[in-house]
Amino acid sequence: MDETGPGGPPPDTGEVNFPAHQAARCHGLAELDGQIARCRACPRLVAWREQVAAHPRAAFRDWEYWGRPVPGFGPEDAALAVVGLAPAAHGGNRTGRMFTGDASGDFLFAALHAVGLASRPTATHRDDGLELYGVRVTAPVHCAPPENKPTPAERGTCRPWLAAELELLSPTLRAVLALGAFGWQALLPVLGEAGWPIPRPRPVFGHGAELTLPATGRRPALKVLGSYHPSQRNTFTGKLTFDMLVDLLTRAADLAGLPRSAPRRP
After folding, report:
1. In this structure, are residues 250 and 175 in contact, taking their beta carbons and an 8 Å threshold?
2. Predicted TM-score (pTM) of this structure
3. pLDDT, tens digit (0-9, with 9 covering 90-100), for 46-97
4. 11: CB partners within 8 A, 6+ apart
5. What share of the chain is helix, strand, coil (3-state, %, to 5)?
6. CB burial string 98-117: b at 16+ within 10 A, e below
7. For residues 222 and 174, is the Cβ–Cβ distance under 8 A?
């Protein structure tokens, strides 16, 4: 497993300020993704992701786990961003791609495909041929956290990566869909720092929540939507159904100005 990537290891990858030092210097998403994959800023997350990678589940014992921070996935000119929580220990932490290889990803990519925003309804590994059309999938925390619960400090340390990603997407970005309250709460301050005015009091999360951040001198208007996270807890209990997510993705695609097919229901 190559832990350093092209060009060898960068300085200070173990320091908490590494994301803050590196993120804003990136000139494109490919460079940003490479720097994210090198980050070792949060000791607890580094230890957990590597422990999981060293002890695969029996079902994945033949896999060489990624075991690193997981970059975002999707084109550089995306008009819609989908912001989740963090990679799953045996999902993105195994495959190296956001929402790939776990039940939440299966649900999300099937819905994206149903709306015409993904080339296929399944996501199994980084080289499976999946393409996203006008959509970038990312998260406010790029390492798999124990019990799927990053700490506020870990979220804050990782925040510059999301800020830089949204900055690089800003010329084409027209809508953002936050999956879950965590994604919503992490997203709004970053959008504010990036130059979009955030209403006060801060809008409350809910499935179907929607707000418009007005254009400024350097930013186009941006639509922000909220959805329940496609976690197994939500999908198994019916709190989030497939049709609910398809309908919200259809709305988000329309707001982003993306062409799409008529939704295909399973």
Report:
1. no
2. 0.91
3. 999 999 999 988 888 888 999 999 999 999 999 999 999 999 999 999 999 9
4. none
5. 40, 10, 50
6. bbbbbebbbbbbbbbbbbbb
7. yes
